[in-house]
Design brief:
By secondary structure, the protein is of the alpha+beta class. Helix content is 27%, strand content 27%. Strands 1, 2, 3, 4, 5, 6, 7 and 8 form an 8-stranded mixed sheet that branches. A 3-stranded antiparallel sheet has the order 9-10-11, with helices on one face. The chain starts with 14 loop residues before the first strand and ends in a 15-residue tail after the last helix.
Length: 247
Amino acid sequence: MTSNRAAPAPNAALANDTAPIDKPQKLSAKVDGFEFEYQWPGEAAAIPALDSWLRGNGESLRKSNQSDAMAAKAEAKKDAFVFNGYSYQEDYTAAANTPRFLVLISDGYVYTGGAHGMPINTAILWDKASGKRLATSTLIDLPRFAAAARKRFCDALDKQREEKRGEPVRHDDPNDIVDFNSCVDLTKQLVVPISHGGRALDTVQVIIGPYEAGPYSEGRYVIDLPLDAGLLATVKPAYRDAFAPAD
């Protein structure tokens, strides 16, 4: 993912995508030992306040990660170690664009010179009514949701584990790592309301990173929980009109 053939300009400014404001936007930088890409879709670029926040966030991430990379490069040179380079990539896509909410989920990867990098996922829930970013916990009572969805969530997790591993999950094998066979705490994962129908938030997506539910080699787990009456009851009253049962 990294390359050391870039122009030797450690203070290189971000390159800005010059597309119109309602088109996808990208910030990028490439210096000797560091590569950076940060993108967001036209749906987000069309909202000035959100576009401004994403641009500022991207610039902040570039500065902090580039600073870390240059410090590590200098340390490696001092100690006569090989510096493998750093990289940071993050790409937001729209997971919902309803009358009330624009929901973005990022898929990314950060590499800091080790044996492998780590995937990163973040989410932004933009409330068009208030013009603010909100947390999922503002919309949904997460402990109640986790309790109501537990069986479906745990069953779906085990099904994906079996697909990845090619064998049934055993919950009683003393030789296995317990965390890799047991159900994880839903409330500690990335929980994001999304829309498959397009009219309202109708599904909750749970993204589980490496080492949470399985070894690094299994990657992340992504579980969709379509909303029914029981799960809709966990949505907080002020936001009920933004949700609907899944088709």
